[in-house]
Amino acid sequence: MAILDVTDLHKTYRDGEILADVLKGITFSVEPGEFVAIQGPSGAGKSTLLNLLGALDRPDRGKIVIDGLELTADVKKSQLDIFRRDKIGFIFQNHYLMQEFTVLENVTMPLRAQGYTKAEATERAQQVLARVGLSHRVEHFPSQISGGESQRVAVARAVVKSPPLILADEPTGNLDSENRHRFIDVLNTLQAEDKLTVIVVTHEAELAMAASRRLLMRDGRLEAPSQV
Ligand SMILES: Nc1ncnc2c1ncn2[C@@H]1O[C@H](COP(=O)(O)OP(=O)(O)OP(=O)(O)O)[C@@H](O)[C@H]1O
Ligand SMILES: [Mg+2]
């Protein structure tokens, strides 16, 4: 069974009198363990789509089913909060780490929110931080580590709770080439070893090539893979 099923998704933004049709009927599905890259020109609607998949925003029309839950208009905000907490790992272009907490605390936080004890959460977080090569940075604060390291903390934070779906929007957008390689290597390894389901929006060919499937988004529509 697909982990993600999207049918005829539409989203329109209103800017004063002007209506912009940003998503014009998106249909696709993703199987468990797939690593999908979505490419496409700026303004195509990629971030809009990812925000709908992560329940950060709601569609005007269409259907989204993630891990058996349909994100319909009548799902309550409190249910969506729990959905995001349990089902989705987000990685953004900017890591959005909590500055007043250490690296370790940033990664234990999603587990604590799910009810893990401090000891369990700390053990799991340390294991994941070791896998992204950051065991030596656990007691540092975000301001004391590099941009590349921060983005690997963001990966650790996203995967630590083993969510059914990981969504990443331009995760290498702010990285230099060395850190980009490192990031892709880490994401690739975790994805393969843990059979994670990942959807990544990216302009970077190197990251897109790491994916097992590539989709092209253009002007609010997904084009057939054969055209990519
Ligand atoms: N909250 C909003 N209100 C109005 N218009 C919006 C809003 N968010 C996005 N848009 C418009 O929707 C279109 C698609 O935006 P989106 O951010 O999804 O593109 P994108 O494919 O992610 O582009 P990029 O590659 O530059 O990140 C753009 O024309 C944008 O201006
Ligand atoms: Mg975008």
Beta content: 25-35%
What is the residue-mean pLDDT, rounded to a whole number? 94
**Rg on CA atoms, Å:** 18 Å
CATH evolutionary superfamily of the domain at 4-94 and 163-227: P-loop containing nucleotide triphosphate hydrolases
- Strand ordering within the main sheet: 6-7-8-3-9-10
Q: What's the CATH architecture name of the domain at 4-94 and 163-227?
A: 3-Layer(aba) Sandwich
Return residue spans where pLDDT drops below 50 for at least 5 consecutive residues.
none
E-strand count: 10
Which structural category fits the helices and strands? alpha/beta
Span of the ends, CA to CA: 25 Å
CATH class call of the domain at 4-94 and 163-227: Alpha Beta
So what's the overall shape?
Answer: globular
Give every kind of bound small molecule, once each. Answer: adenosine-5'-triphosphate, magnesium ion
Order of helix and strand elements from N to C terminus:
EEEHEEHEHHHEHEHEE
CATH topology of the domain at 4-94 and 163-227: Rossmann fold
